[in-house]
Amino acid sequence: MTLWSPDGVADGRPLPLLAVHDGPAYREEGNLTDRAAELIDAGRVPALRIALLHPGRREEWYSASALYARALVAEVLPAVGRAVGVEGAPVGMGASLGGLAMLHAQRRYPHAFSGLFLQSSSFFMPRFDHMEKGFSRYGRIVRFVRTVLRAHAAEHPVPTMLTCARDEDNVHNNRRVTAALKLQGYPATLVETSGRHDFPTWSAALEPHLADLVGAATGGSV
Fold first, then answer.
1. Residue 220, Cβ neighbours under 10 Å: how many?
2. Residue 221 has pLDDT above 90, yes or no
3. Would you call 181 exposed, middle or buried from its count of C-beta atoms within 10 A (0-12, 13-18, 19+)?
4. Cis bond leading into 208, ω under 30°?
């Protein structure tokens, strides 16, 4: 894990936290920290910190793993809070399997996050994603997504922004999950963009949607 903070901010100063799956790739391929600095300088979001989470055993950890969700919430995020000042519950962010894993963690630990920013999340459903059957954790993901779709209400719904390119295979399952979250009380919005299932597309969708989500999750304080 790598921690990023705005220039000139003391480690002890409490700031909102953005916890990002695939953090190094988001920084290197998606220019996330540069975008965050620009948004902060422009007054679009409050000064915040970013925990760039390393994927590790990505296909295992990010595939609706209960062990990973517990480690994230009980070990990783508290370690960030011991290292630097953190204000409130973090906003969780991820793309593809990383987005799926962030929603999974929030569903298991509803009060651990103040908001979710999910991009092209891998919400596998047999109707739309039969081509993914060869993935080793396909069944576990399908079972989790079914629990989301079948739930009647959420324990602690949080502001949720989803983005997905309209020509992606993932767009169909993202539409279904967004509709389910709305019915369960989440202030959830799906933004369909141009592009592909890649970091340039996800980076292009950060503005203005990440700023809007962070504002909703932090009460709009800048």
1. 11
2. no
3. buried
4. yes
The residues with which 163 forms a beta bridge, in sequence order, are 119, 191
Q: How far apart are CA 85 and CA 114, in angstroms?
A: 16
- Is 115:214 a contact under the CB 8 Å cutoff? yes
What pLDDT score does 220 carry?
A: 59
Helices (H), 153-205: 171-183, 199-204
H/E stretch holding 34? helix 32-41
Q: Are 220 and 98 in contact (CB under 8 A)?
A: no
Q: Is there a contact between 133 and 162 (Cβ–Cβ < 8 Å)?
A: no
44 vs 21: CA distance, rounded Å: 23
CA distance 35 to 166: 23
Identity (one letter) of the amino acid at 23?
Answer: G
Tokens of 115: 């908001």
Q: Which residue has the tokens 């993932």?
A: 170
Q: Which residue has the tokens 């950060």?
A: 206
The alpha carbon of 112 is separated from its chain's Cα centroid by a whole number of angstroms, namely: 13
Strands 17-20 and 160-165, bridge-based pairing: unpaired
Sequence-separated (6 or more) residues with CB below 8 Å from residue 139? none
CA distance 52 to 44: 21
Q: Is the model's pLDDT at 222 over the cut of 60? A: no
Q: Which domains does the chain have, with CATH numbers?
A: 2-218 (3.40.50.1820)
CA–centroid distance for 81 within its chain: 19
